[in-house]
Amino acid sequence: MEEKKLRSQEWFGRKGKDGFIYRAWMKNQGFPHHLFEGRPVIGICNTYSELTPCNAHFRELAEALKRGIWEAGGFPLEFPVMSLGECSIKPTAMLFRNLASMDVEESIRANPMDGVVLMCGCDKTTPSLVMGAASVNLPTIVVSGGPMLAGRFKGRKIGTSDLWRFAEEFKKGELSQEDFTAAEAAMARSQGHCAPMGTASTMAAMVESLGLALPDNATIPAADSRRKVLAHMSGIRIVEMVKEDLKMTDILTRKSFENAIMVNAALGGSTNFILHLLAIAGRIGVELNIDDFDKFSSHIPLIANVQPSGENFVEDLFYAGGLPAVMREVSSLLHLDTITANGKKLGENVLNAECWDRNLIGTLEKPFKPESGIAVLKGNLCPEGAVLKPSAATPSLLQHRGQAVVFEDIDDYKKRLDDPDLDVTPDSVLVLKNVGPRGYPGMPEVGNMQLPMKIIQQGVKDMVRISDGRMSGTGYGTVVLHVSPESAVGGNLALVQNGDWIQLDVPNRTLNLEVSDEELAKRRVSFQPLQLGYDRGYVNMFIQNVTQAHEGVDFDFLKGASGPEVKRDSH
Ligand code: FES
Ligand code: MG
Questions:
Q1: 564 Cα distance to chain centroid
Q2: Which residues form the Dihydroxy-acid/6-phosphogluconate dehydratase N-terminal domain (predicted)?
Q3: How many angstroms does the Cα of residue 472 sit away from the middle of ligand 1?
């Protein structure tokens, strides 16, 4: 095959003044001249940050990557981009996913590089990087940071999902302050992102099933030396990908998106997956809609026995055979001819994968749970859709009729939740408004509301909860999320009143408010859109341009791609 002229040569290969300018300052780093004479330049897009603890080991990991790039004859150049730490960023990291993606897109396009490695870890650092890179469409490979080792506390293995249990036990006085604090250090005891199949590991699995990463990217623990081997091999591979001109559009096809949805169901992956995959599809130009998530996942059982839907951790899944072994179990349903980052077809990567532990990886005939995936609900409460994760829900609540207990926003919820006079029973349906993309703003992970104190005291563990917000990938419960349109833009969710009857029917995929159209129209007359008071800056831009949950919460103006070309020089 005839080799394409390297994009980086538009900078470094120039004669005269322009070449001088593009090379001279680079040489202050000690790079000899021959590096500029036609090697594939590989940009390493690094989300290292001490404020993103899940990605704090990325300097070291980048060194392994660079060794691979050098070995293959490439020229690695590392650059930082906005890094989003899920646990610290207020009001929610999701508010900044699109901003980070713009940083990534423009950093790649504007700079001399032929291929890109995306270093992703904590929840939003994967979608923001993949979205940004997809809008440029260079050869691109993802290296994830890997999951933490499972924590150990009082003789038990623990992970992020246990946080919700600890919080409840602490609230009930069953866990002392001292033990509660000790649990913090026991839970996050190693480098890496959250240990369960939360959103970070869901994203790492998403890139592997899409074909954007090498096999085993999803599960090798961060602390395992094989994570560095994977980085090294990804470094070698990206140089080859540049030579083959294997671009993101070659890998991200409609079929690979369908694969990712099916694999996510087999894993019991996070509901955040929906928003991020929709946004990525929008950037790469693949038609995907919210109904596809139900269509391609409802027939897939839960294969992986990993928290929060199961019992173990992503680390254990690696020891049992990793994602290739899970994909092998559902391979009769997957498109095996999609091309992946290692240049092979998906089928070649997974069909010979071995399973070492049937307690971790079930089969289609003997799955861990019969129902998994994402249920997409429709009805007058969510005409554009709402979602629920059946594998994390209580089976007896999947068909439920109850009366609404309404919280107008997050402050109202926090104020009244534990009020002894709150008119609530275990059969009530908790409704939280104004936590959607525009309403909060940024659609935070508050959808799995803690239950009211007086309900917890009755020993009740789950209730039906409905909101236009999201839920942490480590959360669980019978929780209806992503109600669209959201209450802040006047969706019917905004019109729910205390005592209204609500009918949830997951088997039939419906969610209805038992209030007549006439009555809803009457209530709509007095609906007042929320005044948020953000009249400047990024947050204002977010509110003006963000799309609804069923469209992926991307900015309307970011849909699509502008490609890698820049016509004008800087001098
Ligand atoms: Fe970073 Fe969970 S907080 S992955
Ligand atoms: Mg999260």
A1: 25
A2: 39-349
A3: 10
